Amino acid sequence: MNWDDLRYFLSVARAGSISAAGRELGVKHTTVARRIQALETDMDARLFDRTPTGYVMTQTAENLLDKVSAIEDKVKLIDRQASHS
């Protein structure tokens, strides 16, 4: 599993849309969509229901969200510690 794909997952989960996640991440919405599709393929699970108003998390995504958020917190801690070395 790719950490970058998980970051994209978090961004879409928080922003509610591919385009908003792209703006937040500084990439095109097509990149975000491709990374979400890659993660869904890797997990063999659908993470979002695509609706006219945005992306809605599936139960699988809801179950994953806290775990990925915890990973994000640990990565940020490692980054902070590395920058103070």
Blueprint of the fold:
Blueprint: H1 3-15, H2 18-25, H3 29-43, E1 48-51, E2 54-57, H4 59-83
List descriptors:
mainly alpha; 85 residues; 9% strand
The averaged pLDDT comes out at 93
How far the N terminus sits from the C terminus, by CA atoms, comes to 28 Å
Strand order of the largest sheet: 1-2
Helix content range of the residues, please?
over 70%
Report on the biggest sheet.
Answer: 2 strands, antiparallel
- Flag low-confidence runs: none
Radius of gyration: 13 Å
- Write down the overall geometry: globular
Strands, count: 2
Order of helices and strands: HHHEEH
Strand content: 5-15%
Structural class, from secondary structure content? mainly alpha
Number of continuous helical runs: 4
Explain what the structure shows.
- The protein has a two-stranded antiparallel sheet with strand order 1-2.
- It has 85 residues and is mostly helical.
- The protein starts with a helix and ends with a helix.
- Helix 2 (18-25) crosses helix 3 (29-43).
- The model has no long low-confidence stretch (mean pLDDT 93).
- The chain contains 4 helices and 2 strands; from the N terminus they run H-H-H-E-E-H.
- Strand 1 (48-51) and strand 2 form a beta hairpin.
- 72% of the residues lie in helices and 9% in strands.
